[in-house]
Write a structure and sequence with these properties.
Blueprint: E1 5-14, E2 34-43, E3 46-52, H1 53-59, E4 68-71, E5 76-79, E6 81-83, H2 95-102, H3 107-112, H4 117-126, H5 129-145, E7 148-154, H6 161-177, E8 181-189, H7 200-217, E9 223-228, H8 235-247, E10 251-256, H9 264-271, E11 275-278, H10 284-293, E12 296-299, H11 301-306, H12 314-319, E13 324-326, H13 340-351, H14 355-362, H15 364-369, E14 387-390, H16 395-400, E15 407-412, E16 415-418
Parallel strand pairs: 1-4, 1-5, 6-7, 7-8, 8-9, 9-10, 10-11, 11-12, 12-13
Antiparallel strand pairs: 1-2, 2-3, 5-14, 14-15, 15-16
Helix pairs in contact: 5-6, 6-7, 7-8, 9-10, 13-14
Bound molecules: N-(iminomethyl)-L-glutamic acid and zinc ion.
Length: 419
């Protein structure tokens, strides 16, 4: 039997617990469920109790001697961070494109010339399943050291049956073998592969008729994502793909309005997507439609910075009633980072989220964006014991001292994975 773990005397414990169990917007994004001199009792992989140190001392009075004690005096404690949007399974690297963009090329110039997503697709097709496993496991290790305990991951660097399945199987194996929880998304509609150039609708048919049934039969994904963007998939094609996915039980997500306004936010609301991603150029109508439909805005400020674009209007979205989540977008082209702490900092600096809103966006709302809010994203009895102990005293300091990894210790399912 493993010992219970008792974290006590946290300077500040941000539980993120609220009675209401739906994605948070407006004022609800600022309510962090703070406890001073906070304490958590973890056992059997779950949070058993949360409160002040005094409360837990009384509650577990006859079992205190059994526990492994962690003295969190002077430290902030939060739920494990959740990254709801990554392309973490990929082969190769694209550092030359970083230089090309600094020399003046745009993201779309590079992609249209056969680079970008197409370049990673070539390298991912060439990589063996074992190579992808090893490369992805290293990235997941890095996520853990940045306090991230749950990660969504997309296929989409295969764009043929064989390699899409290879990526999804890598995620399935890593879900079993790596401490991080990996949540799989099928994204066969990441781009139109080169061999279908000029025959875009045929690729959409192929995806709907050949790929979706296999992905669904093998239970390899929970979500279905589309890059709806001028020159990639039109809103009509995107709608067909997302609607077809729903018939197989896959929940829609959509890369929307990243480069140009293209009706992506409106489409997300129309098809009932759980989240819409990027949204740098989303229209006012689209944002209003998302607020109405309850679609979460998954915003990616590190991508905007890396592409030297103005970030999405996060402040305005929250004020308009949209629930906002944030993510690294970890991918080899437009955001090769695993640092959710940096993403929280950028959410404050470039999108004017408050420090409290940024923490909600990286925990509870991020969990909602991948349908995991009943398990992770807040510290409450019965939820997974995914906990981060930070080398700062409070959540404001976490966002204020930017660009530094303040993680001290991480527990995943009650097991210490970062010491
Ligand atoms: N925008 C589309 N897809 C990814 C980038 C993928 C890549 O460049 O390899 C994104 O979310 O940023
Ligand atoms: Zn993406």
């Amino acid at each position: 039997m493993t010992k219970p773990i008792w974290i006590k005397h946290a300077a500040q414990l941000a539980t993120l617990a609220q009675y209401e169990q739906s994605p948070r917007s407006k004022e609800a994004m600022s309510e962090l469920g703070l406890v001073e001199d906070g304490s958590i009792w973890m056992e059997a992989g779950l949070v058993q109790a949360v409160g002040t140190t005094k409360e837990l001392e009384e509650r577990y009075a006859d079992r205190l001697h059994e526990a492994e004690v962690v003295d969190a005096t002077g430290h902030l404690v939060t739920p494990g961070l959740v990254d709801p949007h990554t392309h973490v399974v990929y082969g190769g690297s694209r550092e030359r494109e970083f230089e090309m963009r600094l020399e003046g090329a745009t993201y779309m110039d590079i992609m249209n010339a056969g680079g970008g997503i197409h370049a990673t697709t070539r390298m991912t097709r060439e990589a063996s399943e074992q190579e992808l496993m090893e490369q992805t496991a290293r990235r997941l290790d890095s996520f853990l050291t940045h306090g991230v305990t749950t990660v969504e991951g997309k296929s989409g660097y295969g764009m043929n049956v064989e390699t899409e399945l290879k990526q999804l199987r890598v995620m399935k194996r890593l879900q079993e073998e790596h401490p991080i929880d990996l949540v799989p998304t099928f994204m066969g509609a990441h781009a139109v592969p080169n061999d279908y150039k000029g025959r875009e609708d045929e690729y959409v048919d192929h995806l709907i008729n050949e790929m979706l049934p296999i992905v669904s039969k093998e239970k390899l994904a929970e979500f279905n994502d589309v890059f709806c963007e001028k020159g990639v998939f039109t809103p009509e094609q995107s709608e067909r793909i997302l609607t077809a996915g729903k018939k197989y039980g896959l929940i829609p997500k959509i890369h929307a309005d990243e480069i140009e306004p293209y009706g992506g936010a409106e489409l997300a609301a129309k098809v009932g997507a759980i989240s819409a991603e990027h949204l740098l150029k989303a229209s006012q109508e689209g944002i209003a439609a998302m607020a109405k439909s309850g679609t979460i805005a998954c915003l990616l400020p590190a991508t905007a910075l890396y592409l030297r674009e103005e970030a999405a209007p996060g402040r305005m979205m929250i004020d308009e009633g949209v629930a906002v989540a944030i993510s690294t977008d970890c991918n080899p082209g437009s955001s090769p980072t695993t640092s959710m702490p940096l993403v929280m900092n950028l959410a404050c600096i470039s999108m004017r989220l408050t420090p409290a809103e940024a923490l909600t966006a990286a925990t509870y709302n991020a969990a909602c964006a991948i349908n995991r809010q009943d398990k992770v994203g807040s510290l409450e009895a019965g939820k997974q014991a995914d906990v981060v102990l930070w080398n700062v005293e409070n959540y404001q300091e976490l966002q204020y001292l930017f660009g530094v990894n303040h993680v001290k210790s991480v527990w995943k399912n009650g097991v210490q994975v970062v010491k």
